[in-house]
Write a structure and sequence with these properties.
transferase; Glutaredoxin; glutathione transferase activity; maleylacetoacetate isomerase activity; Glutathione-S-Trfase_C_sf; Thioredoxin-like_sf
Length: about 230
Amino acid sequence: MTILLYDLVGSDPARPFSPHCWKAAMALAHKGLDFKSVPTRFLEVPKVEDSASKTIPVIRDGGKVVADSFAIALYLEDAYPDRPTLFGGEGGKAMARFIERWSQMTLHPYLGAAVLMEIHARQDEANKVYFRQSREARYGKQLEDVPAGRDSGLAAFRASLEPLRSMLSYQPFIGGQTPLYPDYIVFGAFQWVRVTSPFAFLAPDDPVNGWFERCLDLYDGLGRRVEAA
């Protein structure tokens, strides 16, 4: 049975952009599971699976509904133990929690602010109103003022990637010789920017960019099916 993945989109249903939904998509592909993306706009999220969650991703696997990207990964690992592991054991699950916190606290604040106006521009009119109101409440300022430090903060952002950059000198993926769920956590953050903005958040010769390109090639180029902005 095909798994349904409720996937956040803007006015173009073929351009899913949520970093968390991309984590789930890559986890499903890693497990070799058939899934169908269900394009879902911000204002449609409360209606997903009878209000199963305030946010997406949400998946439906037969009679099972699971919300939250990490919970989805844990579910897939337990429900399909005969398929390639996402974590490599209990220790891997614990370490993936660290990677998730690092991504949320180091990558997301800069990247999310940097492309905020581009994300807004990709919504239809009704969702633009929702997005502006919700994000201005979150940031405590006008939407247009949020990305003001994008260019001046780029060097510091790239410097913050040095632990990842250094690790990639030893191995091609965060998971080692092959990717694991922590790779998809970080991939989701970078894919979020790639599909919404032409902003060059990584230098072409950065080893992190090389890793990102390898991730884009995974699973018959799943990440590349959405063209870069």
